[in-house]
Write a structure and sequence with these properties.
Layout (H helix, E strand, L loop, with lengths): L5 H7 L2 H4 L11 H18 L3 E3 L5 H18 L6 E5 L5 H8 L3 E5 L9 H7 L4 E7 L11 H10 L3 E6 L11 H4 L3 E4 L19 E3 L11 E5 L2 E5 L16 H14 L2 H20 L15 E4 L1 H5 L4 H10 L6 E2 L8 E4 L7 H20 L2 H4 L12 H6 L8
Parallel strand pairs: 2-3, 2-4, 4-5, 5-6
Antiparallel strand pairs: 1-7, 6-7, 8-9, 10-12, 11-12
Helix pairs in contact: 1-9, 3-9, 4-5, 10-13
């Protein structure tokens, strides 16, 4: 999903950063505050927002932060709203976060091309809608082409447009969510901005807002006066504090270093990600079913129904990839595609690596035809072999290992 340069790891481990203690006086943490202030500015510019909080410690945490601000915004207006509209291609955290924030979730189906249609959105719009949550490009790797019209529909009933920034990696430096009509968003620093992604964290999900939502940001915000930086708790309408101290600071350091080192090349990273995904798609669609054939963004989804009919599921194919030296892609998501496998190449991979992955997928397809046991019994060369997922789910065997 994103290359994690070693230099970022080295910078994050500098004693001046790792030696800080969170309760230190502001006068002794000016460097850290300056870094965070600068990062907020960069993220605001990249996303097209007016202000950013760095507190949320994950994408879902950022979603909750944004939704709590949206709820508070409508309470302050004296017109609390009940509904959040979410497409069927959304990440599962979207409805979970909306429910946790006290909203009723209304699902809207995407069209036959895999994207939302303005007509479908119009049908669910009323004066109880607080927000529409949208990932753009969506989880199928498709750009929501009617986004400007959709934004007008949401704003037309007084609602807000929320951007799930999990796929910002596809458009970073090319187009800004704030210019599409989005009012609030979260960004996954642990994905788009080169922090390690996976293994449960640490993550970071900063939230950006347009000016009219700024007063609801969690406290403290970072203020600059002359050449001095401080933590500002004087926000009477704030939703409060979401994270102890300053968020996951080491992830913020990595993101800041990545942005400084990349500069204008952030745009090239996005363009390379899109190019790589379309290159793989153009090759794989010769032997695999690609339900949405239009040009994709940074990722695309194949359907494994044809292979499953021959006896090998998408999960089998993913495990066979382990034997062939590849970390398996996301499988069985998004839910709108049967036997889904989502392929999202890192933008830094060479053409040789992309070609080798393509050949590995073709090899698996040949094995399904001629030697299916190699696929259905995979992985053969991992520390743990094939496991019985059904038995593990129904009869978990928990052990305490001191």
């Amino acid at each position: 999903m994103k290359y994690n340069p070693k230099v970022n790891e080295e910078i994050a481990r500098l004693p001046g950063f790792t030696g800080l203690h969170p309760p230190q006086p502001e006068g002794l943490i000016q460097g850290a505050l300056e870094l965070m202030y600068g990062l907020e500015g960069y993220l605001s510019e990249i996303s097209g927002m007016d202000a950013v909080t760095l507190q949320p410690s994950a994408g879902a945490h950022g979603e909750l932060c944004a939704l709590l601000m949206i709820a508070e915004y409508f309470r302050e207006k004296g017109s609390p709203r009940k509904k959040v509209i979410i497409p069927d291609t959304a990440h599962g955290t979207n409805p979970a976060s909306a429910h946790l924030a006290g909203f009723k979730v209304v699902t809207v189906k995407s069209g036959k091309e895999g994207v939302l249609t303005a007509s479908a959105v119009k049908e669910v719009m009323d004066d109880e809608v607080a927000a529409l949550m949208l990932t753009n490009p969506n989880t199928l790797g498709l750009f929501e082409e009617e986004i400007k019209t959709i934004a007008e529909l949401v704003h037309g009933v007084g609602g807000l447009l929320y951007y799930d920034g999990a796929n910002l990696n596809a458009i970073m430096g090319v187009v800004r969510p704030g210019d599409m009509g989005f009012d609030v968003l979260h960004i996954n620093l642990h994905k788009t901005f080169a922090g390690p992604h996976g293994g449960g964290g640490p993550g970071s999900g900063p939230v950006g807002v347009k000016k009219f939502l700024k007063e609801f940001l969690p406290v403290p915000t970072i203020a600059k006066r002359n050449d001095s930086f401080s933590l500002n708790y004087d926000l009477p309408r704030s939703i409060g504090k979401l994270k102890a101290f300053y968020g996951n600071f080491s992830v913020l350091v990595r993101a800041y270093a990545y942005i400084l080192s990349m500069g204008d090349s952030l745009k090239q990273a996005s363009m390379d990600a899109v190019l790589s995904a379309n290159y793989i798609k153009s090759k794989l669609e010769k032997e695999f079913d690609v339900p949405y054939s239009q040009t994709c963004m940074h990722e695309f989804v194949i359907c494994g129904d044809r292979q499953k009919a021959k006896g090998a599921s998408t999960l089998n194919m993913a495990k066979r990839l382990i034997d062939l030296g590849y970390h398996p892609p996301t499988v069985y998501f998004p839910l709108v595609v049967h036997e889904a496998m989502m392929i999202e190449p890192t933008e830094t991979e060479s053409k040789e690596t992309l070609d080798a992955f393509i050949e590995a997928m073709f090899q698996i397809n040949r094995e399904i035809e001629n030697d299916i046991e190699k696929v259905t019994s995979a992985p053969q060369h991992a520390p743990i072999g094939k496991v019985d997922e059904v038995a593990a789910a129904r009869k978990p065997n928990f052990r305490w290992r001191p």
